[in-house]
Structures are given as C-alpha cells and as structure tokens.
Write a structure and sequence with these properties.
Radius of gyration: 31 Å
Strand content: 25-35%
Number of strands: 35
Shape: elongated
CATH architecture of the largest domain: 6 Propeller
Oligomer: single chain
CATH class of the largest domain: Mainly Beta
Distance between the termini: 62 Å
Number of helices: 12
CATH topology of the largest domain: Neuraminidase
Structural class: alpha+beta
Length: 656
Amino acid sequence: MNNSKNIPTQISILQMQNVARTLCILAFLLLQTFTAKCQWYDPEKIDEKAQLIYESAYELALKGAYEQSIEKLGQAIAIEPKYVEAYLSRAGVFASLKDYQKSVADFDKGIEMDSVFSLYYLLPYSISLAGTGAFERALEAVNRFLLIDRLNTQSIKAANYRKRTYEFAIDFDKKYPDNKKNFIPISLGTDVNTDNLEYYPSMSIDGNTLIFNRRVEGDEDFYQSEKINGKWSAAHLLEGKLNTNFNEGAQTFSADGECLIFTGCNYPEGYGNCDLYLSYKNKNGEWMPGENLGPFINTDLWESTPSLSADKQVLYFSSTQDGGYGGKDIWMCKKVGAGRWGKPINAGPAINTSGDETCPFIHADNTTFYFNSNGLLGYGQSDVFVSKKINDSTFTKPLNLGYPINTIDDEGSLFVAADGKTAYYSSDRFNTGGGLDIYNFTLPSAIKATRTFWIRGKVYDNKTKLGLPSMIHLTSIDSLQKTTSIQTDEDGNYLVTLPEGSTYALDIYRKGYLFYSNRFTLEQAPDDSFYIIDVPLQVAEAGAKVILKNIVFDYNKASINTASFTELDNVVKLLNDNPAIRLSVEGHTDNTGGSAFNKNLSINRAKAVVDYLVQKGIAKGRLVAKGFGDSIPIDSNSTEQGKSNNRRTEIHVLSN
C-alpha cells in the first residue's frame, strides 16, 4: 500500500526517486567501501568487458534507469557467471523496484558464492528478506551483520532499527497467526485501474459510488466510478467545476454522497502550501468549485488528508500546525453550525508521536479509527494502525494492522466499507503495470470495524408533502448515550448510521410539529444493511397523535424503565416548545391476561408517564392520562411482533 506519489499526502516523486536511487546503488557503494579477508572472489580478475558493462549499469542506476541497469548486470553475469559483485548489485536494484523475491534470489546467489566478500551485504539482504515476509531469516541476517568488527556508528544504528522492526514482525505473527490468511487483494479492474496512477479511494455509505485520484501527466484530478450489478463502471472525471489545472487530491467523500472535502495545493487563495477545501454536489449532479474551509482549519503551513465522520459533524485531518507532538499530527474539529467549524484540537498522544501521522479515516461506526504513522513501531517507514475512539478526545492504544497489509515500505490511506471488513487501498506492489492501482481485501477480525447500517430518507409535512429541515437524534438505548445529532438538509433529506450490536432510539424533531419516534434493534442484524424511511411530521395541533415507540415498562408493571427517559424528555421538550398545547397520554396493552387487568395496567402506565412529565416541570393541567387496555389493537395478537406493537403508549394533542 503506497500513496507516495500523491504529493499532498506523502513525499514527492522526486524525493521518492532519490530514496530509491540511494537504495539501488547501496550494493555498488558497499563494494567500493569495504574489503574483506579470506575470500576467494577477486574483483581484479573479472573479465574486462564484464567490468565495463558493470560500470555502465552503475551509471544507469545513478540516473534511476533501473530496468536498463538490471539488463546490463545480466549481460555482465552472462559473460562472468561468478561475478559476485554483479549479483549483489542487481539484488540492490531489484530491491529499489520492490521486487524483493528476485532481490533475495540474487543476494542468496552472491552470498553462496562468497560469504566473506558478501558479509557487508547482510543488512540490505535482511531488508529484502523482510520485504518477502521472511522476518526470522531477516533477523538472523541482521544479527550476523551486527557481529562484524569495526562497523561505523551509522551502520550500527541502521541495523538496530531494522532489528527492532523484525522482532516486532515476528512477535506480531505469533499474536495474530490468522492475519495473513484473509489477505487476498483484488484489483477493482481495468475500468478503474489504468496505466496511470490511481489512489486514495473513498466511497459513499451504500458502497455504490467510488471517488479516487488519478494522476495523468503530472496532473491530479478526481474520478468517479459506479457499482452496477456488482461491477465497477468505467471511471470518468467528476462532473462540474471541482477539478482544476491545480492538483486536487487526498479527499473524503461524505457518507450521503453530497459533499467532498479535499486537499488543494498551491491554490492562489490558499493560506498555506496545502489547504482543505469543500465542494458540494448541486441538484444536477455537478460538483461545485472548492471553497477554502477558512483560517480556523487552514494555516500558513500544511493541512491535508481529511476524513469526515458519517454524520458530517467531525472532521479529522493531518497538519503541521503549531501545538502538535511531532512533524505532522492528526487534528479534529467539530461542526458548530451550518457551514462553520470549531477550533481544531489535537487527537492526543495516543495517536500522535514525534514522527508523522497522516491519512486518518473514521469508520461509519464513528468509533473505529485508522491512520498512518512512522512514529510508532512497525515494519519500517510508515504503517497503518487502528484505534478505537473512547470519546471526542481519547483513543485506545493503536494496533498495527500487521503484515502483509503493512510492509517494509511506506503505506498510504485505507478506506473501510460499512460492513466493517472490506478495505480499499492503493498499491504498486502487485506488478499490474499501472504503478499505483486500487484494490480491496478482507480485514482480519482483530482489526476490522463494527458492521454499520444506515437509514436514509426524507422528513416532510404530512399535509403539504413539503420537505422539512429537522433535527435527528440517535441514542443508544443500552447506554442511554446520544450517539449523534444531525440536521437534515434544507429539503428534509437525512442519513444516519447505526453500528451493529445495540438497540437505538431514533427521534426526529422540528419545532411546531409532533416528533417522530422509532426503535432499531441490531443485536442480531438483518441481512440488509440499510433502511429507507420517509417521515411525515404532523403539526402539533388538535387531533394530531404519535406512538412513543421508545417507552418501555417492566413486565406487567407500570414502572418506567430507564431506557424510556430519552423519549420522555422529547415529550417534555415538545410541551416546553409549544406552551399552548394539552396532551392526552394513552396506554394500550396486548390481549395477554384478563381485560380488567389490562385496562388497569394501561391506565397506571399512562399515569406513570404523566407523573414523569410533571416531575420535569410540566403543569399537570396540561396532561390527561387514559387507559384502553387491549380494546384498540393496531396489529394482530396472534404473533409476538403483533403483541409488541399493541403494547404501546400514544400521545394525542387535545388543543393548541
């Protein structure tokens, strides 16, 4: 996984070329720097023509022409089959191309021919071994390297660093032996991946719209593909005016598919070299030009790699702004109003280190948090980690995603679908011919997110049918903690997410209307991952009524369960916001038990609700308690679900 070619997120192509060039000529330099005793191999006795070809291979490697260098080294070996230097040098060039299997094969050949002459190659050899996942062999090789007399300080430091990474890898494999089994990356196909670079995938909550970056002749733009009958369509440039002559990249696509926050670098109106911008999709499906998110978020430094929570209330991003723990830190800020964001706060020391942290991704469960770091112990360079959000400013200790998701090379961004286990990323390690391409794979259980469902719909006036901007509250009944509160758009459209494994109360509220109440139990989740619920709201006027679906009583009793408090507080708010209305609270039961018992139970339950409202400051004269027992069923009593529907509490508006 590698987004190194995405300038806003990682180092530039030129820097990467410099790094690769350094690696590939390491073998050449080692041969010129060290001498060894008791070796049979004598460089002075190599055929002169082979030496000339070897020297040309060296020059090609310096220029970054690695394929041509490999070809030349092969020619030298053909002339001089025991050309140890050529084998070891070609191993270094293969390593620069991340072809670690071929690199190890050449190292093995050179070391087998003359282990004494090859002694100083044990460090790069260990790195290539680790590149293939052979961490135990890599550890053995680096330990042998550290036994060499008179190593310089830099070599010892580099070797000890690699040793720590190999020991980490071996320990991780022991703790998570199943981690490798599910890693079968699948290309998204030629309709998405091309000979150009494709990277930084993100998608809508339904998994049917993919937006990603493509670099064509140095220009980064956004492309889109749609999943149709399980297959990704031919990708096309985003419609509208979002793409420009500047580089657009490192984006986060909102769960509802209506907005995009992205990184724009060197824009004329920018505050720094890279800023965050916001684009909306208009009603014609066209993306509007990006708008700078402003000085609260953007600084005169570097902001990039945004991730927007599914409810669009929290934005995570990476920045070099002051007040962090290292070079690049992950920050977060909350929405404080329509189009306005609060002051960013640092994600804290559990996430940020003295190194660089980038590419945050908050899953739709609003708890599972993935990010990239080179400051936490891993496999070398930067790895992807996962943490769980405890609250708005506290995270659990990060867990490395492990090999082979992470490797000895730089890893980039990760996107995890709503199912919690399907991950999308870009990689250039599979030799598909296009450099960076986009793949998906299944996450092991130890690092997957919580399967998340979603509800989408429209809130509207039940008489006029016009959309109503409204507040939506989602509360976990198990913990009585409000999971999220969001505002619909101006037309009343909404989308909320529901992590599996709990029961949720969904309330939709607008002043002057009766609120909507519903309940979703996802402890044993259904096959479908979504609900579409359009919600008609009734004006709070005489004759209007609503069923309180989140009022719970103890069995055969009138005592109110604490899980009901959130719903009852909504009734309190309704009465406070509409001081002229009077309510009838009406209790109903199923047909279990005798009619007299049911009648008495329903009256007592209605009275218990009235008592709660009075305790919350509502005048008793505004409330009436009634009980109807099992006399007015709304469903069949022949099924448990039907009985559950008949056991209900309703409120009726008597006057307004």
